[in-house]
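Running this now, will post back.
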Amino acid sequence: MKKPIISAIAAAVVISLAGCSEKPNITVADATAANQVVASTAESVAATNILMQPFTGPYEGVPAFDKMNLDLLIPAVTAGMELQLAEIDAIANDPAAPNFENTFAAMERAGKALDNVFTYWGIWASNMSSPEFRAIQRELSPKLSEFSSKISQNKALFERVKAVYESDEYKTMTLEQQRIVKSSYEGFVRSGILLDEAGQKRTAEINKELAKLHTQFANNVLNDEESYVTYITKDQLSGLPDSFVKASAAAAEQRGQAGKYAITNTRSSMDPFLTYSDNRELREKVWNTYYSRGDNGDEFDNNEIIKQILTLRHERVQLLGFDNYAQWRLQDRMAKNPENAMALMDKVWPAAIARVEEEVADMQAIADAEGADITIAPWDYRYYAEKVRKATYDLDSDEVKAYLQLDKLREAMFYVAGRLFNFSFTPVPEGSVPVWHPDVKVWEVNDKTSGDNIGLWYLDPFARQGKRSGAWATYYRSYTTFDGETNVLSSNNSNFVKGAEGEPSLISWDDAETYFHEFGHALHFLASDVAYPSSHSGVRDYTEFQSQLLERWILTDEVIDNYLVHYETGEPIPKDLVAKIKNASTFNEGFKTTEYMASAIMDLKYHTTDPSTIEPDAFEREELAKLGMPEEIVMRHRTTHFGHIFSGEGYAAAYYGYMWAEVLTSDAAEAFAEAPGGFYDEEVADRLVKYLFAVRNAMDPADAYRAFRGRDANVEALMRDRGFPVPKAEEE
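Update: finished.
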């Protein structure tokens, strides 16, 4: 590993500059001279380090994924931080009176080199992790936290932000500019800028320690996903679909276990195995392996880390004057406070667990009729739910899967994007755009009418070692206009089980919904029409709404008739099978809602409870028992592998946001269902793009939704969607 090419003098300058607001003897001239030293040193690194350099090549430049080299990462991050701190301090010490252009627009321009570095960092962290990268991640995470604190605690910078926020200019700004200024001001306050010196110091220390713990938590989960693989033999395949068997054989061969079948420790492998395997003992083993991630009592156990994370978060928000972490976190979310978030959970939870009781009774009846002599356990739920589905709706999930080809579904998504957004997708010639793995493909996205290039869409669909579990969307460049238009580099990433050589990749109905869901995020990036990068920072309990909504187009006639075709015969899915799918649309909704809500409720409980009283395993059991959690189901994300809330703070105290967004989704779907043109109604689609996608976070989400719908959303639409009883309106 090469050492960072950073001089001791430059490093010292960065540290002194970061504290300049507490060192009044440093003048603007001093700061300018120091900035020049730092910039000169860091720029010498940037000149030769591909990770820091502007993207080059076609489409206004693309990341050099083919030239990624881990040896370059530490020097790039270190120099990138130095450059951005120099830029920030130049803004903070600008002798000109603060205004939007010299303060906020200048901050929007700062940190371009570091932004470029983090494009590559994200690939190493999510798509191609390795022990070498994780070591670098552990080394750099606390330094990155210190870097962030130096900006968020820069009092000179805050004074300029505050001055603009309180100025007459603020009243004349565009709504987007006002939102950026207000959010920035409030962000500084939430980060502790108004604390005394001791409070700020302790806040920075806490952030640094949390950065280490978040990284360790995530890497522990990834270790358990990579290290635990269940290998089975030919005589243990009973019940498993042929497509799954072939994919599992290929996965075993890749791991040097030719002749066996690998059940990997990911949801995309675990879920179908538990649904179809006739071997109850193996189902229990696979279930335990998956749900015990981070909870195996070894060096990768996350229980102690969780306690430390909760304790540090609680201490930090108490310094800021809040009773608990959730109060602090939800100030700028649509829910506003944990009470409102929990109130939504309370409305839906009773109906969800009541439905689970009905589902379990149906499953137990089948098990009893078969003479299984068992009581339904968590590892039986998917297996017997599938039997109930067949018995009740004459619907075989494996039969449906034969019509769900990954490539065809991708074309269906392109069709929907063409109808709603006027986008076209054309594959770029192989080799013309660098990628990080041979599985990754790239498409050019254009406006169908003008032919103008919107950007690129990268797709990395398959599971592999070193890739984190789940599905996600991201972007490598966002659309902005304040310094000239930029096109979008968007990306979708999944962990589907790759089909055997020469075979199509078939996925489940749930996976198909996830595929559309994540594509909804990509469309949110591609359809954006905002001036500033900051407007892409979304409100967490709103940003899932757009992607959830896109799932609804899978069952439109246009998609069904043209893209759901049998992988062997090419015949369209039969109308009677479609009818069965629609009839069963709320089937197993008790399970899906309850496993999700258990995680969402526990997230809120973890972040509204004194952490000194929490032992994670015991707390999880005790609190779920108080809720009346059905013993046949566990949390979708058990505490020790709940990466949404413990591998970072993005969803911490905010996992409820999926349900909050689902209320909007159900209500918005009814707007399309009621329109003359249905789900492809041009007038509703125009409002969809204008108010729900293009504006990103340049408009308050509540205002944006009202502009689309003409009113606020209501929870009754969600209850109807899930087939739950709609509560009668309370009397005035």
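The radius of gyration is 26 Å. More later if anyone needs it.
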